[in-house]
Design a protein that fits this description.
Elements (H helix, E strand, L loop, with lengths): L1 E5 L3 H13 L4 E5 L11 E4 L1 H10 L1 H8 L3 E3 L2 E5 L2 E5 L4 E5 H15 L2 E3 L7 H7 L2 E4 L6 H5 L1 H4 L1 E15 L6 E8 L2 E11 L46 E9 H6 L7 H11 L9 E2 L6 E8 L3 E2 L2 E3 L14 H18 L3 H31 L9 H9 L7 H7 L1 H10 L13 E3 L2 E3 L3 E3 L14 H12 L4 E8 L16 H17 L4 E7 L10 H4 L12 E2 L13 E2 L2 H21 L3 E6 L4 H6 L14 H18 L6 E6 L10 H13 L4 E5 L17 H11 L3 E3 L6 H10 L4 E4 L1 H5 L3 H8 L36
Parallel strand pairs: 1-2, 1-9, 2-8, 5-11, 9-17, 20-21, 20-29, 21-22, 22-25, 23-24, 25-26, 26-27, 27-28, 28-29
Antiparallel strand pairs: 3-7, 4-7, 5-6, 10-13, 10-14, 10-15, 11-12, 12-13, 16-17, 18-19
Amino acid sequence: MRVAVIGGGPGGLYAAALLKRLDPTREITVFERNAPDDTFGFGVVLSDETLGGIEHADPEVYRALQAEFVRWDDIDIVHRGRTLTSGGHGFAALGRRRLLAVLHRRCRGLGVELRFCTEAPPAAVLAREYDLVIAADGVHSATRTAHADVFRPQLTTHRCRYIWLAADFAFDAFRFEIAETEHGVVQLHAYPYAAPAPAPVSADAGLTPPQPRCAVPDTGPPPPSARSSAEPAGSASALGASTVIVEMREEVWRAAGLDRADERTSVEWCGKVFNDALRGRALRSNNSSWIAFRTVVNERWSHGNTVLLGDAAHTAHFSIGSGTKLAVEDALALAACLEEQPDIPGALAAYEAERRPVVASTQRAARASLAWFEELAGYVEQPPRQFAFNLLTRSRRVTHDNLRLRDPGFVAAVEDEAGIPAGTPPMFTPFRLRGLTLRNRVVVSPMDMYSAEDGVPGDFHLVHLGARALGGAGLVMTEMVCVSEPGRITPGCAGLYTAEQATAWRRVTDFVHTRAPGTAIGVQLGHSGRKGSTKLMWDGIDEPLDTGNWPLVAASPLPYKPGSQRPHELTTGELAALRREFTDAARRAADCGFDLLELHCAHGYLLSGFLSPLTNQRTDAYGGSLAGRLRFPLDVFDAVREVWPDDRPMTVRISATDWADGGTTAEDAVAMAAAFAEHGADAIDVSTGQVVSDERPDFGRSYQTPFADRIRNALGVPVIAVGAISSWDDVNSLVLAGRADLCALARPHLYDPHWTLHAAAEQGYTGPGAPWPLPYQAGSRTPPTGRTDAPKPRLTLR
């Protein structure tokens, strides 16, 4: 097999070394446009997981790297002059030049041909001459660009600017420092990559002259930092060395004049801002420039016998780890798949199938982390320990329980600062909305059951909602209860537009208040709009009825999807009638004894259809600008609030993004939430999507919670977070970090009606936030699963 590797970064070199070691008969050539020492990164962080893979695959490389590593456990968070330290994290780093030197030596020893100062021929040319072409040519990959029609890349440029620098001493820990300048918030990310040397070594101060580069024609667009999205090189001083990254929002960068500054001025500016952290020492650069991070996602990773690896295939923001880490893991997987599969097409398919979900998970975490730093200004007013906890858990990979295992003292201090009693998980603290105090932070999310007859809830609803009320949640929400017969989604949807329906709902609320005292029950009122007259979910979700259709109404006459019924555009007079339907239903809900009312302005139903620019194309006062699109939903809210009892809270559910181009933006969502809060909403229930049928949601664990987080910390308004929150650890993390006040869970409550009580039992909590119903108290402990008293073996006879 003949293999060509485009790009001599760590991923390309390690792939070459592994493939040659596994089969010495392979002819492997690495094409690198730069000189061997001409690298643009200072330090590289690798996880224990990655190092374990390297140790297993190539012990020689592992031993060489192990000799170079500097290790540490702590993270320091510095904010407003206060340093908080969290331990037990475990990092390993080394200089990028040292990493490359180890891989160069290994490749040469194995017989890999390294062609430095050599521009690689186009991948299409190499693909005709070689059996396999590995494109490890970085974030600005020429290979990916040349075959964009096949790889179908999606490139997203983000809102912060950052610069890679170095300090000629080793920080004691991974350091995050926040500076609040006259121009805005600036953050520092720093970590050691070289330990202090035993003897003094001359060190550069200030700017390091650029290293000699190869005299090759510049035939591609990549700038000097193109090989890696993560790291700009340098030698270590007698005091060691650290990577220093300075990052800020684009508007802060411009306000500080850094968009017009040269390299020296930028370095000096950063040094002044973080002078205390740097102990008065100058920063060092290496052709460093301000960069806007770019997330790379490819629909496909291979094309014929050409495969993308590392940053060419995907990028993840530096704040959760090294791009080098992902590239090395790619190399390990690719080499293994080539060994395991009978041919190259099968190997490339297996490689992508193995790595894609891992990378997708990493990218979700990276986007959450990236977004957290983009919104950093919204968090700086948090109490110091909560701020530190929020920062540490920003990517959702480190959680409350995980951090408690790493550093129990740190988590205990965060909880004490928040006023949480010792031994009480954050999820079991009370929360007050107007005159209603919820005993814990768990909400049973509204879930359509499609089991009503003529809009009347029956025995199913009594058992369904009653069981979940007995299950310990602080608040149980009904499904969307429709305000009129034409406002139903399906023939099985429940309503509150007749006296018979109200009587049936009273039966449910009476049961909850009598048999599950302390549990609140809320009603969600809504109208289907253009998404009505469809089949029951299990018969074909969002599919029009075969017979018995009723006419639909909406903000604009736009069908939900091809084949859906075209709705009638509501006139001004019809809007007034609809408003009365909402107020009539609200009066009935109050008489039924519901403790809370939520107005459904999400998921593409009627009120949501007014809010989104994709579904509201009106030219009158109820369309156009966001203020116009808000007009009718706010009219309805005001009318309902007027008839709803003053001591009972009202919430509003919104879709904070449409997951579609041209739809509701994150900024729109904050503005919508602010408008409803100003009109008296006690909390905003922050959901996303389901507004247009061609949406592209970014699914993943807790994937909607950043939208709630942003609204809460931008406005100070209470929020309910939703969206694949699946564990009590997630709830504890979100509440303690201040990203959400309440957490609504749907599917977990379908799986386990007693989810909240079981969460309490699993955490050893027996306090007032999760009391077991008296008839169930005997089951409040986890049942034994097998014999545990068998005698242990004492001797082994040979």
